[in-house]
Design a protein that fits this description.
The protein is α/β, with parallel strands linked by helices and about 525 residues long. The chain is built from 17 helices and 19 strands. The longest helix has 23 residues. The radius of gyration is 26 Å and the shape is elongated. Bound molecules: ligand NPW and potassium ion. The site of potassium ion has 11 residues, from strand 5 and strand 6.
């Protein structure tokens, strides 16, 4: 599903009219009807539409128009609908216009008995900060919601006051429990602070022919996408069918990362996991990851005098690599000069091999930290490399440039750097960004504070590597991995809440999420990520 800026949305609407005769009123009929359908589909089973009290806040533009169409549909379905036209200060309660002199007290009374308030004040046409009286109206609804937590807020297209391009939010904006956005999710939703105001995200249809969207470069990860990329498992298969993964990760001080990454690769279906270890670290892994095989490397050099040992290590590792489809390098390796030397030698080996004969490469964590110490580090990478930095690692890769945790700046940065460095870039964070070297970008809607804990990055790196081993192209392997990983996180949080998750908790959920997505049985906790195209 594509994600749009305000300008792109306007262009889509203009094209719909030019090429297909879909005028604004026609689109609005679709929008309001689709929003009503989604709203009714989401009512809890004990909430019948009959006698449900819904107050619509109607703005002066097309967003208000969408609200009016939606309201008509709810009236027909049996809801008790009132609407307040903000600009005209006009209140209509269940079909009756209220005398201007009684508007305030009647509005107060309608609000106090409402089950739902629908925010159809402003959409993508917001051109200035919210006016004081609009803020006062929204503030009143907010206070009512604080007193009556059962009151639900539904935003049409976006919560009024959210900047759909940047994710900035007006101080008067009301947090929605559910946003029914129209045609396409808006770019600003994926960044903070807006992300916190959207609630459950649903995407309604305005009847645009999908071919109009084909030029758009930003996509949202969703189930439909993932279903089409989950590797097929033919009956007539063996472990070679699903690819071999080599992990050059972990050290005596950081053994957990190789365990987590290796297990994750296996849990998403890779055929064989091999850990590159030394005699010293072998016992740690042999006792924790029984299914893995091992490539035993010589210990690294202990001083400048026996530096030649680095070459021996690299040689031992590269001797093992033929036949492996994916290599993960970095997590837990540490940052000694010897490790850096080995990493560079492995990169040199990979660059010297024809693409079809060498494993695809994922670099994470200390792999990136070691590289970032070098000038023009990206020139050492083989073609098709995936890198998976968190904001701190990204900042080091960009030579200290500040990388924000969740603001819109990080999108432009990810896009620019994936092109400059010619890598598939997974910039982790709440709403992870996956950028292709050709300028395309995919964004993950799922943001989960429970995943902000040690080791979850190792699991993600292992999942990416596991999908690469199964033959997915780098951009698709990375995208699928981000979605599956965050969905597993969503499942764990459904049970544990948003704190206390351990990275290893994710592992058994990875195959379950894949199974359910494949069979269309996965129910995300916080959104319906397919566009609703009507019944
Ligand atoms: N076009 C289409 O075909 C389709 C559009 N669709 C729907 O329309 C929405 C976009 O519609 P839109 O462009 O009419 O803008 P919208 O957000 O309703 O508001 C504009 C009005 O608000 C006013 N205003 C602005 N800022 C203000 C402020 N701070 N405080 C107070 N007032 C403010 C502004 O006034 P002005 O700046 O002109 O003085 C103008 O009167 C979009 O989000 C979607 O819901 C879809 O259903 C599909 C078809
Ligand atoms: K709105």
């Amino acid at each position: 599903m594509h994600i749009v800026t305000i300008e792109e949305m306007r262009e889509l609407e203009a094209q719909a009219e030019r090429q297909h005769g879909l005028t604004s009123p026609i689109l609005m009929q679709h929008a309001g009807s689709s929003a009503a359908d989604i709203f009714m589909a989401q009512l809890l089973p004990h909430h019948s539409i009959n006698d449900l009290e819904v107050l619509f806040l109607i703005g002066p533009g097309n967003n208000g128009g969408d609200g009016m169409v939606m309201a008509e549909h709810l009236v027909k379905a049996g809801a008790l609908v009132s609407y307040y036209a903000w600009k005209q200060h006009k209140l209509t309660v269940r079909g009756q216009d209220i005398d201007e002199r009684h508007t305030s007290e009647e509005l107060e009374s309608v609000l106090q008995s409402a089950d739902y308030v629908v925010d159809a004040l402003l959409g993508t046409g917001t051109s200035r900060p919210l006016s004081d009286d609009m803020r006062a109206l929204l503030e009143r609804v907010k206070r009512e919601g604080e007193q009556r937590p059962e009151l639900r807020i539904v935003a049409i297209d976006l919560p009024s006051g959210v900047n759909a391009d940047t994710g900035e939010v007006d101080p008067g904006t009301l947090k929605a429990d559910m946003t029914i956005t129209l045609a396409c999710p808006k770019l600003g939703f994926f960044f903070f602070p807006a992300r916190e105001y959207i609630g459950e995200l649903h995407v309604g249809s305005i009847g645009l022919p999908t071919d109009l969207e084909s030029h758009l470069q930003t996509e949202m990860l969703n189930q439909g996408f993932c279903r089409s990329y989950i590797p097929h498992r033919p009956l007539n298969s063996n472990k070679g069918t699903f690819g071999k993964v080599m992990l050059f990760c972990g050290s005596a001080a950081y053994p957990g990362s190789a365990y987590l990454a290796g297990s994750a690769s296996g849990r998403v279906g890779a055929g064989l996991i091999t850990l590159a270890v030394t005699e010293k670290t072998l016992p740690i892994y042999a006792s924790s990851l029984h299914e893995a095989t091992f490539a035993i490397l010589p210990e690294g050099p202990t001083s400048e005098l026996n530096r030649g040992k680095t070459h021996e290590r690299t040689q031992a590792l590269s001797d093992h690599l033929p036949g492996y489809r994916a290599l993960l390098m970095g997590p837990g390796l540490g940052q000694s000069s010897e490790t850096r030397e080995t990493i560079l030698q492995v990169l040199e080996y990979l660059r010297s091999e024809p693409t079809e004969k060498r494993p695809h490469l994922v670099i994470d964590a200390d792999g990136l930290n070691n590289l970032s110490a070098l000038e023009h580090w990206w020139t050492f990478l083989p073609e098709g490399t995936i890198i998976t930095p968190h904001p701190g690692e990204m900042s080091r890769l960009c030579k200290g440039q500040k990388v924000s945790g969740g603001s819109i700046d990080r999108l432009a940065l990810a896009r620019e750097k994936a092109q400059e460095w010619q890598v598939t870039l997974v910039l982790k964070g709440a709403c992870t960004i996956i950028a292709h070297p050709d300028g395309r970008v995919r964004l993950n809607w799922k943001a989960n504070a429970a995943l902000a804990t040690a080791g979850t990055g190792d699991v993600l790196a292992g999942v990416v590597t596991g999908f690469l081993a199964q033959g997915l192209a780098p951009f698709d392997a990375a995208s699928l991995a981000v979605y599956i990983h965050s969905s597993a996180g969503e499942r764990v949080s459904a049970e544990l809440g948003n704190a206390g998750l351990l990275a290893s908790d994710l592992l058994p959920h990875l195959p379950r999420v894949m199974r359910d997505i494949k069979h269309n049985a996965y129910r995300p906790g916080s959104d319906i990520t397919e566009r609703y195209e009507g019944k």
